[in-house]
Structure formats: C-alpha cells, structure tokens
Amino acid sequence: MKAATREQISSDLELSNIYENLYLRGGIDQFNLSNTDAGLKPSLGFSYSKLLGDWLIGVDYAFMMEQYSSSDRHIIGLNIIF
C-alpha cells in the first residue's frame, strides 16, 4: 500500500502471468480514513503482449469507476517495441 496523504490510502494488486503474457490488475483509490462514507474509486484492467518476429506488441486496458461523473473511464494503450 502507498499513502497518498495522511488520511487517504490507495492500494493495488497485480496477478502476474494468469495466461502466457496476460496480466490482470485491480485497485482502490481514494479510501479516506477520516470519512468512510466518501466513495471509493475501484479500477480493473489487464495487459497482454505477444512477440511477433522481432517486435513485441502489447495492449493495455483499464476501467475506472468515477464517483462524481456521469460516466466511467476506459483507458486503452497500445505498445510496440521494435
């Protein structure tokens, strides 16, 4: 766990290599110790990579719930290492 402030903590968990080159992640952000009624910001995601010839191609996806927004966040990343 890492401390964001004196009264707020964040935590995450990564499950490595569930399947070959597949990584799952989950986390909680903004857990306020002085106000447990405040909403949490949970997140889930995954990363996958594959070696194609001399290139390593990867994709990342994350879903984050937003407590004060009308929509949640979907974050997509593409990695190419050559």
Summarize the structure.
The protein is mainly beta and 82 residues long. The protein has one domain (2-81). The chain is built from no helices and six strands.
Task: Describe the 3D structure.
- The protein is mostly beta strands and 82 residues long.
- It has one domain.
- Helices cover 0% and strands 68% of the residues.
- The protein is built from no helices and six strands.
- The chain has a six-stranded antiparallel β-sheet with strand order 1-2-3-4-5-6, with no helix packed on it.
- A hairpin with a 2-residue loop joins strand 4 and strand 5.
- The radius of gyration is 16 Å and the shape is elongated.
- The mean pLDDT is 81.
Order of strands in the sheet with most strands = 1-2-3-4-5-6
Number of domains: 1
Helix content: under 10%
Radius of gyration, Cα only, in angstroms?
Answer: 16 Å
- How many extended strands? 6
With helices defined by DSSP (H or I, 4 residues minimum), what is the helix count?
0
- From the N-terminal CA to the C-terminal CA, the straight-line distance is 34 Å
Overall shape:
elongated
Show the helix and strand layout.
Layout: E1 2-3, E2 8-19, E3 22-32, E4 41-52, E5 55-64, E6 73-81
Provide keyphrases for this structure.
single chain, 82 residues, mainly beta, elongated
